[in-house]
Design goal:
48% helix; alpha/beta; 5-stranded mixed beta sheet; single chain; 2 domains; Trna Endonuclease, Chain: A, domain 1
Amino acid sequence: MRRDSIFYRIFQQSPALLFELLETTPTNAAHYRFDSVAVKEPKFEIDGVFLPPNNDGTGVVYFCEVQFQKDERLYERLFGETFLYFYRNRDLYSDWAVVVIYPTRSIEQSDVYAYRALLNSTQVKRVYLDELGDIRQLPLELALMVLTTLKEKQAPEEAKYLVTRTKEEVAEPALSSAIIEMIKTIMMYKFTELSRQEVETMLDITFQDTRIYREAKEEGRQEEAVELVVRLLLRRCGQLSKDLRERITSLSLPVLESLSEALLDFAELSDLEAWLEKHHKSDRD
């Protein structure tokens, strides 16, 4: 199960979620953005980096590592990447911090003696998901993280609970839809032998049950459906050009539904453009 990609999708959707794991939260936490960065000479690819909104030399850069498999050289790599990136960008940030997320303590690197000063400092936070408490008492998106760790026997019941809770607690249709889609994705990773439809049946949901399209279908508001899909795309891909917006506006409601499911796997605008081109070709055929 590719849990790290799921976690990074959760962080892309809600960057401020990282700070719910920390004792100290920056005053501008709501304005941080999640990204991945490359550090050259030697080249490192750092998947989880939280960048402050104004890189004027006063912000704190946060590095996040999601580790679900034993790696006896994790801290060597993690601190090497962290220090090199901070060195290359020293003029942009005043400080750094690292958050490492484990499912349980048993996954952590065995020999940590060489890094005892760092690991026991306020700059490094280790999170063990099985110690966060009852999944039903956690904030929704933290609960999604814990859901990835549950056994197959327990996961369906808790996933169904989280779907119901999402519908009841999340007023914004786009965010509600995104969280439910994430729950589906987690369950599809857990139950790889099941199809998407079978997972939806397991959870007693279909995409049409979510607020984003139930409201649009009931009231026949094509424009509202377009607006909501665009909002989802802005969360996933960033700003959309006028041409892309016009192409999305021209889509029918069923196609918008297909796009809303597909976009959860988009990483950049080129994925959206490829999807639209493929759909256009299918229509012509």
